[in-house]
Amino acid sequence: MKAVRHKIGPRMSQAVRAGDMVYFAGQIPDDRTADIMGQTAETLGKIDALLAEMGGTKSDLVSVQIWLSDMTDFAGMNIVWESWVDSENPPARATAGVALASPGVRVEIIAIAHIQTGAETAGTDGPTMSASSGTR
To answer: Is the pLDDT score of 112 beyond 70?
Structure first.
């Protein structure tokens, strides 16, 4: 099985498909001034967009890791998460407090999805697409 990379940048791919498994790079918010709820909503929006590009939805997520720069943000992040997540098909999830690489970033979210091969939406540029502004 050959891995297929999507939105390749100089440092990483935003998504890598290996069979029916899709591994997403850590997504971070662009607005570094927003509070945890704003940053979480923006980051989950980026995940929604990547899932759609790969032919999936949040119900296809199988695992999510959420990294917070300050664990006191846990409750605020969870408010946004709980309004976003597919409560009928929630992924396995872990949350940890970590030192994030970019100043002002309060949350980074890493996801893995199971999306049947061939489900990608038509019109995407596949492996040659440029990196999004959310890369580090």
So the answer is: yes
**What is the model's pLDDT at position 124?**
42
d(CA 4, CA 16): 6
As given in the structure block, the two tokens for residue 106 are 């309060």
Q: Give the per-residue SS3 of the chain.
A: CCCEEEEECCCCEEEEEECCEEEECCECCCCCCCCHHHHHHHHHHHHHHHHHHCCCCHHHEEEEEEEECCHHHHHHHHHHHHHHCCCCCCCEEEEEECCCCCCCCCEEEEEEEECCCCCCCCCCCHHHCCCCCCCC
Tokens linked to 54: 């790969």
Instruction: Tell me the residue type at 4.
Output: V
What predicted TM-score, i.e. pTM, was given to this entire model?
Answer: 0.85
Residue 119's pLDDT band (boundaries 50, 70, 90)?
Answer: low
Q: Write the CA distances from 44 to 32, 41, 119, 123, integer angstroms.
A: 15, 5, 21, 23
The token pair at 128 is 């040659």
